[in-house]
Write a structure and sequence with these properties.
This protein has 196 residues and is an all-alpha fold. The chain is built from eight helices and no strands.
Length: 196
């Protein structure tokens, strides 16, 4: 059987613990308040509460001759506000630059597409002109075609010969100078080997 006093002892000890915690909280609040507020020696409540039992070490510290000037909070707020406004201005400038860069990038991409389309069109026209030249040289007499091919640059002559039927190309090459015919034949072979 439990003693009724045992229950009372627990309640009293809980109450004492709560009072101790509240006292510690009060001391903490007072200490925090004293740090946040300027020390006012003319207020006896603050002096008695904070320095109720001064330590010997505190008693030996000499009083400062002049009170340290507290920072002016309104000036600090103005400085912070100015910095914030400057950061906002810079952010707006960066956003404007970003929009400008995006617009330029879009224009460059459009220009790249147009150039690519023009290059493709040029390749198609070049192929069409090459086909036309192949037809022209195929319909010429072999001796006349050989004279004309000898006057052309070798890459152009190779392209024309590669577009012809083998028999027509052979007839034309028979009238071309032997050394140039050998170079053209070698170039044609390389071209055919590069395209499977």
């Amino acid at each position: 059987m439990k003693s009724p006093l045992f229950g009372i002892n627990i309640r009293v000890s809980n109450l004492l613990a709560a009072v101790a915690v509240l006292s510690l909280c009060k001391l903490f609040v007072l200490a925090a308040w004293s740090v946040l507020q300027p020390f006012d020696r003319s207020n006896p409540v603050v002096v008695e509460t904070i320095f109720a039992a001064p330590s010997p070490a505190y008693a030996q510290v000499p009083e400062p001759e002049a009170r340290v000037a507290e920072p002016n909070l309104s000036e600090e707020w103005q400085t912070l506000r100015q910095r914030q406004e400057e950061v906002q201005r810079r952010e707006q400038t960066l956003q404007a630059l970003e929009r400008e860069l995006d617009a330029k990038l879009n224009r460059l991409q459009e220009l790249e597409k147009r150039i690519q389309a023009m290059l493709e069109k040029a390749d198609v026209l070049k192929d069409e002109k090459t086909k036309h030249l192949v037809d022209v040289y195929s319909n010429m007499k072999p001796k006349r075609a050989a004279e004309a091919l000898e006057a052309l640059e070798e890459p152009v002559a190779v392209k024309i010969l590669s577009g012809m039927r083998g028999r027509n190309a052979g007839e034309i090459l028979s009238f071309v100078d032997a050394e140039k015919a050998a170079r053209l034949t070698e170039a044609l072979t390389r071209m055919q080997l590069s395209f499977p």
